[in-house]
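To fix ideas, we now present one chain and its tokenised fold:
***
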Amino acid sequence: MKKFNDVLGKIYGIMMTASFFGGIVPLIPFIIALFVGGDFGETVSLFIYNKFYPWVIAIGSLAVLVGLVHTYIGDFLEKKANKQKEIK
């Protein structure tokens, strides 16, 4: 179970990194579209909004799901609850 949890942690990290950079990367085309304007700027902006961002949002959502499973399979919450009981 420990090995599976480690794999989930790595998958979570990779997916969150991909989601983060997926949100940052379109900044450059949006800036170019802003300066170019016209039909080309509109086409670039709509392409990013309609085709690219849904994938980034889906990857981010799956990453959150994997992170939750990783947290609940691991003993993170149990250890934290035990520490709070010891403090009191």
About this structure: The two ends are 31 Å apart (CA to CA).
